[in-house]
Write a structure and sequence with these properties.
Elements: H1 2-12, H2 25-45
Length: 46
């Protein structure tokens, strides 16, 4: 199993750039803010 993880990690580093450890965190925050804003708009209409 460790070999598979290492091979996958090596494959993801092929372009020469390391992946950021926080790659999904920022997107999640932006999505949450947008969803909250849309919810607030909907709530105002009701």
């Amino acid at each position: 199993m460790i070999d598979r993880i290492k091979k996958l990690d090596d494959f993801l580093k092929l372009p020469g750039k390391e992946l950021p450890a926080h790659s999904g965190k920022k997107h999640k925050e932006v999505a949450k803010e947008k969803a909250d804003a849309e919810y607030d708009k909907l709530k105002e209409r009701s």
